[in-house]
Design brief:
Blueprint: H1 37-46, E1 64-70, E2 77-85, E3 91-101, E4 107-108, E5 117-118, E6 120-129, E7 140-142, E8 147-149, E9 161-163, E10 173-174, E11 185-189, E12 203-206, E13 215-217, H2 219-228, E14 236-241, H3 265-274
Parallel strand pairs: 1-14, 4-5, 6-7, 12-13
Antiparallel strand pairs: 1-2, 2-3, 6-11, 6-14, 8-9, 8-10, 11-12
């Protein structure tokens, strides 16, 4: 069950049952169908937190979605899969699933000085890194030791990138001195009002271990994500719990054939249907995030 903040919703899935023959034995009522990937991603967008969207682009216009799923709220490792809406309006997986690490306190309500990754659906903001722009269309800044992310709850620039010689105070991060984790990163805009106490400096970045509240993936995948992201497509990231999340992406559906080439046609359609057990299922009541 995905628990996702503010909205409770139910999804009604119509079942199409093949007609039986006159001699067919009575059958038990069919079990409720698992919603398909299209339904699940659209529901994630419907649950998009008020105030977290682009000021110019409605949440419903999103055509890029990153889904981070962990098997339980206290887990520190899950998977990340990127989906894009094609010309026919259907969601297709394009990157992943890959290992994804979240806060060492799991996921849930964000809080300053608590290493917990925010749960919910959020927009993506400033991209940055210690390395040159890898080719992303997102706003990108190459940082040096004069660039900080302000985590001082008493500062007027709390939860923002600032450029100055000295730390803004408290637990502010020097974006260069943080090391290879910030070779490439993009902000997860979980706190768009920059409200002190609700956590700052939450990013999707490079890494292979539990985080202080961010989401971390391998460097190659991070570069792929940055090259793929397009602000014109209003990208979002959804972070939540799905008990069926594999602990090893090798057990999840692959988007490539045995030669490593991308799947197409019926093969891709078959794999896409399997993602109903990999990405989060938004089907129950939601609690505050």
């Amino acid at each position: 069950m995905w628990q996702l903040g503010l909205l409770g919703m139910a999804v009604v899935v119509a079942l199409v049952v093949a007609p039986g023959t006159a001699n067919a034995a009575p059958t038990a009522p069919a079990a409720p169908a698992t919603p398909d990937v299209q339904t699940m991603i659209e529901n994630l967008l419907k649950s998009f937190l008020p105030g977290a969207g682009s000021p110019t682009t409605p949440a419903g216009d999103t055509s890029q979605m990153i889904v981070v799923s962990v098997p339980e709220a206290s887990a520190t490792k899950g998977t990340l899969t990127a989906f894009e809406k094609n010309a026919n309006g259907q969601w297709e997986p394009v990157i992943g699933p890959v290992d994804a690490y979240v806060g060492d306190k799991g996921i849930g309500a964000p809080e300053d000085n608590v290493h917990r990754t925010p749960e919910g659906t959020f927009t993506l903001g400033q991209a940055f890194g210690r390395q040159d722009n890898p080719g992303t269309k997102m706003p990108y800044k190459k940082v040096d030791d004069q660039d900080w992310w302000d985590a001082n709850m008493k500062s007027p620039t709390y939860n923002r990138m600032v450029r100055q010689s000295q730390s803004p105070g408290a637990d502010s991060e020097n974006l260069y001195d943080m090391g290879p984790a910030y070779d490439y990163a993009v902000q997860i805009v979980h706190n768009p009002t920059n409200t002190p106490g609700k956590a700052s400096a939450i990013f999707l970045h490079v890494g292979s271990e539990p985080t202080w509240g961010c989401v971390a993936i391998d460097k190659e995948s991070m570069v792929k994500i940055l090259k793929w992201l397009d602000p014109a497509k209003n990208p979002k990231i959804a972070i939540g719990v799905n008990e069926k999340t594999p602990t090893d992406p090798a057990t999840a559906p692959s988007l490539n054939d045995q030669s490593g080439s991308p799947l197409t046609g019926d093969a891709l359609t078959g794999v896409l249907s399997q993602f109903t057990s990999v990405i989060p299922q938004l089907l129950g009541s939601a609690t505050g995030s």
